[in-house]
Amino acid sequence: MIRVLVADDEPLVRAGLTALLAAEPDIEVVATVADGVEAVEQARSLAPEVACLDIRMPRLDGIAATRALAGPGASPRVAVLVLTTFDSDDHLFGALEAGASGFLLKDAEPEQIVAAVRAVAAGHGTIADGLTQRVIGELVGRRRTQPVTAARAAQLLTPRETEILLLLAEGLSNEEIARTLVLEVSTVKSHLARMMPKLGVSSRLQAVVWAYQSGVVTVADRPPQDGPASKG
């Protein structure tokens, strides 16, 4: 069962999202709150797997709440899916840099939202269609925000973990990485499980964000395709 917290300052949106998720047999909405302070307090108390956060909320906005729940030093760390009406670069990149594992616009289809919650809970991450190329370009431009350098990355990761990270940044699934490296899928998953704590991230998407910000991967390294880390 995926335990979810819903945070939105609009009562109708909050009620609609709660009803949508609660109707799924594998999802339980454990709390609904109206502002970012409540979101952080309830998440720390109830430890849901996923927090669905709006960007614009009173007292504490969604980006600050994301940083508190999913950023460095957060304990317990909660995977965050940001749902917003604002298709803004600053909101998107701010959420990802704060530690969000997913970003969707509220006008996404209901099945997309449900699928995104499941993906984030599984550590895969998701970004709304059409936003991926903007993310990659911006991450390269914002590399100065990430204090870890490519040289430091080489110290943190084993050669095999680096190989997997590079393939992850190409958008390959666990199964595709396993075929490429001639490994068992379970071995790939084990490497990912060991790698993410080293990078201070909690999802595949955040691992890709880290890779671009640290300079381990550059745009030139990446084949021309859409959707990094969107597969499981």
From TrEMBL:
Residues 150-215 form the HTH luxR-type domain. InterPro entries: CheY-like_superfamily (IPR011006), NreC/VraR/RcsB-like_REC (IPR058245), Sig_transdc_resp-reg_C-effctor (IPR016032), Sig_transdc_resp-reg_receiver (IPR001789), Tscrpt_reg_LuxR_C (IPR000792), WalR-like (IPR039420). This is Response regulator transcription factor. The lineage of its organism: Bacteria, Bacillati, Actinomycetota, Actinomycetes, Micrococcales. SMART domains: HTH_LUXR, REC. It holds the Pfam family Response_reg. GO terms for biological process: phosphorelay signal transduction system; regulation of DNA-templated transcription. The modification 4-aspartylphosphate is found at residue 54. One of its GO terms (molecular function) is DNA binding. Keywords: DNA-binding, Phosphoprotein, Transcription, Transcription regulation. Residues 3-121 form the Response regulatory domain. SUPFAM superfamilies: C-terminal effector domain of the bipartite response regulators (SSF46894), CheY-like (SSF52172).
